[in-house]
């Protein structure tokens, strides 16, 4: 086995959840393709090896998590994948007043308190994992912020990121876990219970800090988030749809070989990218009307770059967040440290640009971008 293959197996999220959830997810997505059987077995044995740790954590910590209260309204960063959510999130968590879901927690939500308490485990896991995310050039470690969508998928089958492992059912996972379409009342209630537990555990781990949560899937879940946390604050960041398409396509091309346990066609992925963007943003535009006045800020990614401090000041002022002046220096240091970050380069052919114009023209105009890009090619 090559080093790259070994890291792919380690990055298989399914291996870090419970054995019960492992089989629930497998059954819900109709199994794995034969060429991925070794990866499947590796994930299965990872699940088995984690049983003692999960039992220990449940016994020691579950009653403490249940009694934890979330005293501050969470701040949710929304936006389609590849729209700048990660950069905004990583910048804001330089403020130590915020709590976030670290990657070790998102991947192993029912073990991470125990693993984190063992001093030898963190260096071992750090050494085994890659130092960059598989889909871009962003630095990665077990302590960096991660989307809690992975944690949901390791606790129940209703997670969009399960679709990355089972791409034949990518569309069904999106419709059920992001849009909440066709769910029974009991399954929706289970999702809400799991989600509250994840955020309570994050709050417990951070000793009661305000939650700063970044998850693009939440862009279509505003109504549910408001039901759970009525005074939530929302930051929606959007980006030129042409760039979003290119970056998302590359994202899937690099991510699928790492996670996938099923084979699908490139055409299927392209259709999903177009459909998911439309459904996600349409749901956002409909649901944002339900957010209380003053509890949402919208940011254009291209305007944010180079003007980070101005927008952070606006966020802190509008949401009445403390200590902006005290934290301004750490924000500036982070911005300067990322000034030489090399973005992935993208290109679009004429036929693809025409299709983007046709499918996403409304959104291009909605966000004030130039739909005449086709004439420049």
From TrEMBL:
Signal peptide: none annotated. The chain crosses the membrane at residues 36-56. It comes from the Bacteria. The keyword Transmembrane helix applies. Pfam families: Sulfotransfer_3. Keywords: Membrane, Plasmid, Transmembrane, Transmembrane helix. The keyword Plastid does not apply. InterPro entries: P-loop_NTPase, Stf3_sulfotransferase. PANTHER family: OMEGA-HYDROXY-BETA-DIHYDROMENAQUINONE-9 SULFOTRANSFERASE STF3 (PTHR36451:SF1), PAPS-DEPENDENT SULFOTRANSFERASE STF3 (PTHR36451). This is Sulfotransferase. It comes from Gloeothece verrucosa (strain PCC 7822) (Cyanothece sp. (strain PCC 7822)).
